[in-house]
Design a protein that fits this description.
four-stranded parallel beta sheet; Rossmann fold; single chain; about 10% strand; about 60% helix; alpha/beta; 2 domains
Length: about 250
């Protein structure tokens, strides 16, 4: 799915004729319903084999100055939109029999470990982790497998957009109180967009989750799972200190 017709045209030119781009805004109930009706019109009652929830935005900034409207937008896209799309397509997913259907949610390591100035994004991804776990248990009776793909730093424009957004929203008060931390995190965000893992790594995980005989429930990309577990096991104050030191070190590169 795409949000703009120009993106749909681009896909039509680059991809196989078997690919049918759908215009859909995950924050618009009518748009979601229309997309679901189009898909049902194509596949009929044969069932839908898979759904990948990939819509996402990253809103950054100190929580003290965060406009509540932006927090709502973050959650609307990254959390509520994912649930709304899943609800719309679940009847078709349930109809799939051989093989059974699969749902893949694109989360983030930021849903496992929180970072400064990424509170809204962290909150949305932590929420998606919990919702995915609940959904997996709820759909077990129909053998619909639900998986999470949790990338860390990936070469996508989302981090450049997040850094640019933070720069344009910087007020004198924010600069005085959080300027140093904001500057460091912007450097880290820009580096994530240019030096992160290739998008292909995420694609490979999605393909495995969708096609493997024994798919995993979680795919952590770009960061070793033991490292994530280690950070989560640390006392809060030690984890905070380690993350802040890491931000300081990466900002100097």
């Amino acid at each position: 799915t795409v949000r703009r017709e120009v993106d749909a045209d681009s896909l039509r030119q680059k991809a196989s004729a078997n690919l049918i781009p759908l215009l859909m805004d995950v924050t618009d109930a009518a748009s979601i319903q229309h997309a679901a009706e189009l898909v049902h019109g194509i596949i009929g009652d044969s069932g839908l084999q898979g759904l990948v929830n990939n819509a996402g935005v990253a809103i950054a900034g100190p929580l003290e100055f965060l406009p509540i409207a932006e927090l709502r937008q973050q959650l609307e896209v990254n959390v509520i939109g994912q649930v709304a799309v899943t609800q719309a397509f679940l009847p078709m997913l349930r109809q799939a029999t051989i093989p059974k259907a699969r749902i893949i949610n694109i989360g983030s390591v930021s849903g496992l470990i929180a970072y400064p100035l990424l509170g809204p994004y962290n909150a949305s991804k932590f929420a998606l982790e919990a919702l995915t776990d609940s959904l997996r248990m709820e759909l077990k009776q129909w053998e619909i497998h639900v998986a999470l793909v949790d990338p860390s730093a990936i070469k996508t424009p989302i981090w450049e957009k997040s850094a640019a957004h933070g720069a344009t929203q910087l007020t004198p008060d924010m600069q005085q109180l959080y300027g140093d931390l904001i500057a460091k995190m912007q450097k880290v965000a820009m580096a994530s967009g240019t030096h992160g893992s290739p998008v292909l790594k995420v694609v490979e995980a999605v393909v495995h989750a969708m096609t493997a005989d024994k798919p995993r429930t979680r795919y952590v990309i770009g960061v070793s799972k033991p490292l994530v577990l280690f950070l989560r096991a640390l006392p809060d104050h030690r984890r905070d200190a380690l993350i802040l030191r890491t931000v300081q070190r990466r900002a100097k590169k």
